[in-house]
Amino acid sequence: MSIKENLYLNLIKDDRYMYLIKGLGNTLLITIVAVVVGILLGFLLAYIRSTHDKTGKWKAANLLAHLYITVIRGTPMVLQLLIVYFVIFASVNIPKIIVAFIAFGLNSAAYVAEIIRAGIMAVDVGQMEAGRSLGLSAAQTYRYIILPQAFKNALPPLGNEFIMIIKDTSLAMNITVAEMFMATQRINARYYEPLALYIELALIYLLFSTVLTGSDWVTGGVFGAEASLPAVGMGLLLTIIFLCCCKKDER
Prior knowledge:
mainly alpha, MetI-like fold, 2 domains, single chain
């Protein structure tokens, strides 16, 4: 089968590309909501943990935050997704994509919390003392001095977390959310050509990862263009494999 015929059967015939477009929309929607929830809740957890680490206050809140982070980071994402869907919302009629928002957001919050906490702890303690000596309150010192520096420190790993969420959204297929991976499965059920379809899907995920990895607005210019070179190389490799498979089928 030629490349043209393969692309036609997988994407063009019967408007099968619409499955991927709708799946891509759900993938991006889940990612954006999960990132927003993760940053908001993660910042709260990081503030509690870093305040306890520096002052010894909020022992009970720190214990709960530490327990939450340990459980979430220590268990598989797919297990958390299934627990949220089949246990927590078992008796509630709720859209499955909302369940995905909640599950991925709660999972992301645990990782974001540790990223932000590390960024805060990396700021020298003298910065707080300098702010207080200038007459700023503790809250003002955090807002104008500590957090801007902490955010700069946390920006590169936050970009990596964004990329991980995009790839992890494929797990939403386990609760039949129509994201990109499930859209590919539906196309494959109609026309059984799994290798070509999966490579096409891998190229789409890799495209997003490459763009985000090489973007200065995600990494803050820390990684630069060199960071995207390995991903570009993998993309070229997958493209070559895809073309070779099509040529083999054609022969």
